[in-house]
Amino acid sequence: MDEAQLERVYHEEATRIRAALAARLGDVGLAEDAVQDAFVEAIEHWRDGAIPANPGGWLATTARRKAIDRLRRVWVGQDKLALLAATMTDSWDGTDTGDDELLGMIFACCHPALPRESQIALTLRAVCGLTTAQIAAAFLVAEPAMTQRLLRARKTLRSAGENGAPADVRVPDPDQLADRLAEVLAVVYLVFNEGYLASTGRQPARRDLAAQAVTLTRLLHRLMPREPEVLGLLALLLLHESRAATRFDGWGRLVRLADQDRTRWNQSLIDEATRLLDQAIAMRSPGPYQVQAAIAALHAQAEDYEHTDWRQIRLLYDRLQELSPSPVVLLNRAVATRYVQGPHAALAEIEPLAQDLDGYRLFHALRAGLLTGLGRDDEARTASERALALAGNPAERELLARRLSF
Questions:
Q1: Side-chain half-sphere of 337: how many Cα atoms within 13 Å?
Q2: Least confident window among 96-100, 118-122, 323-327
Q3: Three-state DSSP class for 254?
Q4: Distance between CA atoms of 101 and 85, rounded to whole angstroms?
Q5: Which of 56, 100, 179, 319 could form a disulfide with 13, with the two C-beta atoms 3.0–4.6 Å apart?
Q6: If DSSP codes are grouped into helix, strand and coil, which group holds residue 96?
């Protein structure tokens, strides 16, 4: 089996097997280690082309054996070893992995006891199957530091349950589901945003991270098809993805939404997102992701930037502020205000946000644009320089520098 074939098997089978083991062991880290051990053994055994008829079953059985071997080495593993023996027959091959087990592992990786950066790292590692090196590279962290972050996350989960017990690797009870689901969706959205426009580093975008976030949201939708906010987030990500091909020009420079070639937007993704959003709205349980998706849909449906339904977008930002209050929401609303009421009104809206958003590059960038529209060029230049100083993305920096050169 060549490297490409093994990688394909890994992506097809690893998450399912990890989820099944984690559900039975109550330990995401141990399940991950066992699956990793199984794939190392697969590389050794399949190198000469001796591939089993059921690669997934072989890997699942081997992973189970590797988990047993690890548990036998330490006395604290005896309870888990008994649990593993009680819940798996000798013929277990991982094919009985259910949606609840996959979903349970996602919730475990996004446990509230973990800091946000650890939630993201563990989700990318255990659910998406990225290597530690890939995750470290994505967030510009040294691989040893990322290894330690993942080890700390696993250790935290082993005592994050009631009375110091391991955290549950299962779907939370109904009275906890809403808050825990919001945490999961926030993690996925952060992964997507980092992929869509990297906060730091030489690459302006990380298409691999954006794709992982979309895949993970599709999985959540498959596992929770009646959750309106999952539908809303998936619709939102697909609408953003529909514009991906037009966000940078041939030189790698960032292209503003107003200047993008809308004929190159992916209409099939827009249509799919619109259907998903309609389904969510029909459930009459509004949430922040649904509102953001509705805003993105209005942009997608507009003939051009100037003919966007800015009045409706402004109303939607009002609704978003009710659901999820934030100065960033008010800042975004001011963009719509500019087209509905003019730059003077928009500037009046954002000036009270100065204290909260002084360290946010987009506050100063928008303020510069509004000041330019009012003919206050010296103030606009100062605001643009402040935005440039705060920007970490190379494409954003180039765009801001280009504005300053005019």
A1: 19
A2: 96-100
A3: strand
A4: 18
A5: 56
A6: coil
Q: Write the CB contacts of 355 (distance below 8 Å, at least 6 apart in sequence).
A: none
Q: Name the β-bridge partners of 391.
A: none
Are 122 and 28 a contacting pair, CB within 8 Å? yes
pLDDT at 266: 97
* Contact status, residue 304 vs residue 334, Cβ threshold 8 Å: no
CA distance linking residue 94 with residue 102, whole number of Å: 12
Which tokens go with 395? Answer: 């494409």
Q: What is the pLDDT of residues 330-346, one digit of tens each?
A: 999 999 999 999 999 99
| Residue 268: per-residue pLDDT | 97
Q: Tens of pLDDT along 242-292?
A: 999 999 888 888 899 999 999 999 999 999 999 999 999 999 999 999 999
Alpha-carbon radius of gyration of the chain: 24
d(C-alpha 317, C-alpha 116), whole Å: 26
Per the CB < 8 A criterion, the answer to whether 212 and 195 are in contact is yes
Per-residue pLDDT tens over the stretch 64-104:
888 887 777 664 555 555 555 545 554 455 555 566 788 88
Can you say how many angstroms the Cα of residue 48 is from the centroid of all Cα atoms in its chain? 38
Tell me the backbone φ, ψ of residue 248, rounded to 5 degrees.
Answer: -130, 145
Distant-in-sequence, close-in-space partners of 249: CB < 8 Å, separation ≥ 6: 255
| CA dihedral (104, 106, 112, 113) positive or negative | positive
Report residue 132 as tokens.
């530690």
* CB-CB contact of 238 with 267 (8 Å): no
DSSP lists the bridge partners of residue 248 as 254
SS3 letters for 2-23? CHHHHHHHHHHHHHHHHHHHHH
Strand partners, 314: none
Name the residue with tokens 């302006």: 204
